[in-house]
Amino acid sequence: MSNPSMPVLESFTRTWPDLEAAHERAMRVASALLDCRTRLLAQLTRIAVYSSARDELLRAVGALTGAPAELARNCPPQLSRLSVFLPPHHVLYSYALYGLVPALYCDEVVIRPSALTRDTAYAVHKEITSRLDPEMARRIRMIDISRRQFAPVCAESDAVVFTGRPAQARDLMHTVGDRPLFLAVGSGPNPVVVGPRTDPGAACRTILRARLHNSGQDGLCPDVVFVHRLRLDAVVEQLRAELSVLTVGARSWPDTVLTPLVHEDAVEGAAAFLAENADHVVSGGSADVERMLVEPSLLVFPEGTDFHPPELFSPVFCLVPYEDPEMLRTWARTPRELERGMYVCALGEPRLTGQTLGTAVISRNATALDARDANRPFGGFGVHASGVRRDGRLIGRPLLLSAEAGLRRAVITGPLR
């Protein structure tokens, strides 16, 4: 007879996978990625600059080599099916994060690629699965169907990873019902804060590296930079000088920083933003939709909490001066920013104390790109940035599929004393 004072653990599905077998599979898959790295980079540079594609490859390999420790730490159950909406950016890294690593503990991973990068996603999938052992290759399936057609597949899955707009995430969550574990992976403005104790040169290097990652076509690129008034003039002048010497190159060139954008809606969105805010343009300010080019542009907005940048996905730099960090806290507590809080890069601003700014995680002297770790929960506490369904609603918090599956597996249902 069981003791009623002890917690009862209920299994989500079945027991967790064989860690030794998962270790061997992960190492073989990592080796396969390295063996075909030249062909993968050739495919990725159709939609990304070479440096970004190389970064994806290294992060994908790192995700796999770190997977055995991740599974041992989180003890996810063996899932029957995972359904994944692959994002249009960082295709290889996302394929590893949501496809290859979960295939170590999922019987089947069904991936729907984004229509924007469908051909590249299929090419990457074909190249990798052709080098996997048959059992591992059979676990990953890519299907080209509409979001509406994919919903019934998701409803019959143990877990769903959705990447896309928050409104679409909510609609899909209600459509698929309560059965699947549901993760919604979004993005945020990921601001950089340049404090009074920051060297302007070092700050500009950080800002340029973060904003120009893949020519600005990444959801982790900072859409706004808050600069203390003591550093504003120096930062503006140095950024203006650096942006003036950038030239457009081919995506396949290793030293290319600026390239034509991949998606027409990104160019159109940047063009509309620059036209609407022409009074704030310090340098640049033009966009050529026909050539898919956005000129590296620097804008300086008035001090205050009214500026809430859209996702720009382009080499556009938006600066907002500040003096008192309380302004930053007020900005971060606005309803919109609370929903999309993800990361804040704090440079030389000791007055930003604590772990979060609003719902965004403070990453000191590091950008959101630096914080990306495939084997650890990632994101902030904004529900639009990273949310998991609990008790019928999305809860914002840093996400990792294996950790969320492991939490759902072990639910305490008995009394604790």
Automatic annotation (TrEMBL):
The keyword Disulfide bond does not apply. InterPro entries: Ald_DH/histidinol_DH (IPR016161), Ald_DH_C (IPR016163), Ald_DH_N (IPR016162), Aldehyde_DH_dom (IPR015590), Aldehyde_DH_NAD(P) (IPR012394). Keywords: Oxidoreductase. Residues 108-390 form the Aldehyde dehydrogenase domain. Belongs to the aldehyde dehydrogenase family. This is Aldehyde dehydrogenase family protein.
